Structure formats: structure tokens, C-alpha cells
Amino acid sequence: MKILSFKLGGHVSFGPKVKKEEAVWDVLAIQNELQVLPSFSSSIVDGIALGFDFVEQIRKLVEAAEKSDRAESFKREFTEIEWLSPIPRTPKNIMCIGKNYDEHAKEMGAEAAPTDLMVFTKSPTAIAADGQTISIHADLSSKMDYEGELAVVIGKRGKNIPKNLAYDYVFGYTIANDITARDLQEKHKQFFLGKSLDGTCPLGPYLVTKDEIPNPQELTVVTKVNDEVRQNGSTKDMMFTVESLVSILSQHVTLEPGDVILTGTPAGVGKGMNPPQFLKAGDTVKVSIQGIGTLVNHFE
């Protein structure tokens, strides 16, 4: 199931993409008007905590709408909605993995890839949506960079999760662009400020449930800047797999439903080019991952 969050007329909702249509089912409206279920979460993060019971609830709501004589009234066309991040706000900072692809580690100047996890975080206030125009933050940085990544969305609270059970704690996947102010990284000698400027963590367009992506280590990741391919990698090249990341992180941090883990970026970032090519006002960045879609953002 491909789930998206949106706003329409001041009304915030979510729902699955309508099959073969550029539209979304407004499941909150279906539940409110048809009263299909005894109760239904109005928050997507609260729903995710129910695991795949949440997915079944959504399916029941869609089935009820389709059987009613008002099915069309519960659909919202993509052209009329304001897209939101599928996870509008994470319970804690977004957890990010650095240099998880060997070639990216090399282009960033490392002589060898890290043997242990390199972890940093981004503030939840950095979250942005597909289609959102993002500030280039010219008053703070002249070296804004892109990083296309697979993002993992946690579905169940867990601590000290065994690697072989890690996927039980994953709800699904989305796309992230870990936008980074490289000069702020260099200036402050740490990542948080350079990674947390407003709008520098677009997520989307969809949250795809894990049943649709049986192997997250077989996905292509392509990033384009103004339709020029800059990154063309595969998640098979991750040094720490999704199940390893979930397991290792949970040894140190209790994972919660709605937590987001950015799994690292392939080679091809602007800083790694010769000469470096950073983002500028007027640029458009597209990050595509097979099975999920394309995350598009404009910069000004």
C-alpha cells in the first residue's frame, strides 16, 4: 500500500493512493461519514503503532467507500491537495547514517569506509514534503548539497532488537533527500546544524508498506539535479543493511513507531564532484527509488 499525507481546505488527512488514478482516498472522511470502524486513528503515527492492523483498517475503509453510492466524494485529486510529508513529524530526531556506501565515503575524502556506524541526527523541524519549495538558505550557507536516500519508517517500539527480527519492527519505506550545508558542517565540526536547517529533510511522496518491498537491499537510488543524473546507486551496496541498522541503533536508542532512519547516500553528491557543484536558487532535485516513486523539490 502506498500511503500519503495531505492537506485540503485546512483539513489534514491521509490515505492510500487510488489504484490507477492520480488521487488519494480520504480515509478520515470515510470513517467520519460512514462510521465503518468502532474507532480509527486520526494521526498516521498513532496508526502506524498498530502495525498491519492499521493497513487492514484502511482497506476496510476503502472497501466501504467503494461499495457506497458516494465513492467519488471520498477521493481527493492530486491536483487539488497540498502534499505533506508522509510522516509529518517524527517522535524524535531523524536518525541518519553517514558514509554507508563505500564509493560515497571515498568521494568525501575517507581513506577507508567506517567499520562502525557513523550516526548523526536531523531535527524534526527540517521535515518537508514532496513538491515543496525549499529555501537555499543563502544567508547561512553557500554550499548546500543533496543526498538521495532510502528512508526506513519504524512501526513498533523496540530495544535491543535481534538482527533476524529487525524487519518485524519496520512498517515501511519512503524517500529522503538529506540536504546538507557543507560549510556549516566544516565550520561547526559536527553535523547537526548543517543538517537541520528548515526544509532540509524532504520525505515522500509515499510511505510504502514493507510487504510491497520484500527486499530493501535490491533498490536503485537515482538523484537528478535539473534532470542531470548525479547519483545512480543501489541499496545492495550498503555496508550496513537495513536489518543491521535497525538492530544496532536499537541497542543504543529505543525505537518508536514513526521514527525515521535515513540509510545513507550513494556516490555522486555535489561536494564529491570536480569541481564541486552545490545547489543554487532555481534548481530542481528529483530522487527516485524503485517501488516508491520520485521525490521532487525546487529551491529558491
TrEMBL record:
InterPro entries: Fumarylacetoacetase-like_C (IPR011234), Fumarylacetoacetase_C_sf (IPR036663)
Domain Fumarylacetoacetase-like C-terminal stretches: 94-299
Any one Gene Ontology molecular-function term assigned to this protein's record: hydrolase activity
Keywords per UniProt: Hydrolase, Metal-binding
Pfam family, one: FAA_hydrolase
Family, per entry: Belongs to the FAH family.
Protein name: Fumarylacetoacetate hydrolase family protein
Source organism (scientific name): Lysinibacillus xylanilyticus
